[in-house]
Write a structure and sequence with these properties.
Shape: globular
Number of helices: 30
Strand content: under 5%
Helix content: over 70%
CATH class of the domain at 272-380: Mainly Alpha
CATH architecture of the domain at 272-380: Alpha Horseshoe
Largest sheet: none
Length: 501
């Protein structure tokens, strides 16, 4: 027998030696550890040996629902019905399977007379799918009033976190901890809320605990790695990504993280090697599409890179990275005049840093534009250093949710020049600090300076939403922002929150 066949055969024989009872017992442990994939596999093996085992079928249906395997759950439910099982639990499982498969109204109809917390959870999920945020909130609240349970508390917390209601999400995270403090979902929601609230150490502690308790799951490793990356701790992020690779090397989220980290380390050969096989399916404005384009540029393929970045800029004209890189590619291909025109909006900003200004100077000088000397003088000015220090202080304050410090920094920046981006950041900090009149005023200044920019439309709507004023205008502005940038999850979350009030 060939050696390459020995290990698979031994593993198959070992699996065959497990009795259905052994497999079910192991699946119960896996389900408790929230390793639903492993539980599904063991339960399927148990049912091959004992097809009529109702305990295994019920557990399998539940695992399939947690894995969002609607078709598999439907098949298990059909077998349970054929075996004579009836009752509200089976109906709720069937409704949840329908919901996963996109059959929203039939799912609602199935639980129409069920007032349990799980039925309200299904209704809430259906309302979310239908875009009915007010209905979703009402269903969640009704489910909690009906006694609540772990799953509806989890879904409610995730929903509130997605809409930006951090206080509400934190309240649900605390409830989850009361149910089961060391369940994977409890730890993950607590960590996500802590991270969004600026409590970095607390978030990392929860992710580390989850990773220790559930060593076969990569979710806490990915979350912590992304957090480390945003903190500038790229090497720490790479270590966690390496650990995740040992567990699930084919995971698509891990693949995306590896691309991002390789880009930050300047490993352009690696980025190109990983993404070249996927070139045909890459969106120019996706993170991977932009990383691939930069790899092309850094490796000397300037014309190809220019085409990618110019397409990205057309699709997302307000993305500063696309604009910066398009200008760099245009300059690399000898089109200095176009490069300067492309970079000029970024270079004119009060927030412009040395990278934008140096590129603008090079492009202007190559194009023979005398403005190059003025840009060079700005690069050497004390005002640029002052603006950079204020910008860094403002962004650091936003990250730690120190609204007063952010107001101070961006307020001083606004005195250096009228800039839509500065007014936008100042408006956000003022709004979060409860200074609503000033927030709306600065948001409107930002919008007046850049009336077609989705970020400016969004902040003008958000400040009104946070102030509880002029709801029709807030809704109209948020909808206009989404119309110009339909891919923004934050815009959609704020619109959901506006529609719920």
């Amino acid at each position: 027998m060939k050696r390459s066949l020995v290990l698979p055969l031994l593993l198959a024989l070992a699996a065959c030696s497990d009795s259905p009872e052994d497999l079910i017992a192991r699946a119960k442990q896996e389900y408790a550890a929230q390793d639903f994939l492993a539980a599904r596999n063991d339960l399927a093996a148990a049912l091959r040996a004992d097809p009529d085992n109702r305990t295994a079928l019920v557990m399998l249906a539940r695992a399939q629902l947690r894995l969002a395997d609607g078709e598999g759950a439907q098949n298990s439910i059909r077998q349970l019905k054929a075996a004579g099982m009836k009752g509200e639990e089976l109906v709720r499982m069937e409704a949840e399977a329908l919901l996963i498969l996109g059959q929203t109204q039939p799912a609602i109809n199935l639980v129409a007379n069920d007032q349990s917390a799980d039925a309200w959870r299904i209704r809430a999920a259906a309302r979310v799918k239908l875009g009915d945020s007010a209905g979703a909130l009402a269903a969640f609240e009704a489910g909690m009033a009906a006694g609540g349970n772990y799953l509806i508390t989890l879904d409610y917390g995730r929903y509130l976190l997605g809409t930006g209601d951090l206080a509400g999400a934190e309240a649900q995270a605390r409830r989850l901890v009361q149910y089961d403090p060391e369940a994977m979902a409890s730890l993950m929601l607590s960590a996500d809320v802590a991270w969004r609230l600026g409590r970095s150490a607390e978030a990392h502690k929860a992710w580390a605990r989850a990773s220790k308790l559930y060593p076969r799951r990569i979710e806490p490793l990915l979350a912590a790695a992304n957090a480390f990356d945003s903190e500038g701790k790229v090497d720490d992020a790479i270590k966690l990504a390496g650990r995740a690779t040992e567990i699930a090397p084919e995971n698509p989220e891990l693949f995306n993280l590896q691309i991002m980290l390789a880009s930050e380390k300047g490993e352009w050969d690696k980025v190109r090697e990983m993404l070249a096989p996927k070139e045909a399916e890459l969106s120019p404005i996706s993170a991977n599409g932009l990383a691939y384009a930069e790899a092309l540029l850094r490796l000397g393929h300037s014309e190809q890179a220019r085409a990618w970045f110019e397409r990205a800029m057309l699709l997302s004209p307000n993305n500063p990275y696309s604009r910066l890189m398009a200008a760099e590619a245009q300059l690399a291909t000898g089109d200095a005049t176009k490069a300067y025109a492309t970079i000029k909006p970024l270079a004119d900003s009060v927030l412009a840093g040395p990278r934008e200004l140096e590129l603008a100077e090079r492009a202007a000088r190559a194009a023979g534009d005398p403005v190059a000397d003025a840009i060079k003088a700005r690069l050497q000015s004390t005002q640029l250093k002052q603006a950079q220090a204020l910008s860094a202080a403002g962004h650091a304050a936003l990250a730690r949710r120190d609204w007063n410090a952010a107001i101070e920094a961006f307020g001083r920046l606004s005195e250096l020049g009228s800039d839509g981006e500065v007014h936008k950041r100042l408006a956000f900090a003022l709004s979060m600090a409860g200074r609503h009149d000033e927030a709306i005023a600065h948001a409107d200044k930002a919008l007046a300076l850049r009336p077609d920019n989705p970020d400016m439309l969004h902040i003008a709507g958000l400040t009104r939403l946070n102030a509880g004023r002029d709801r029709p205008k807030a809704l109209a502005l948020l909808k206009a922002a989404i119309a110009r940038d339909p891919n923004s999850m934050q815009f959609r979350a704020d619109l959901v929150r506006a529609q719920a009030h």
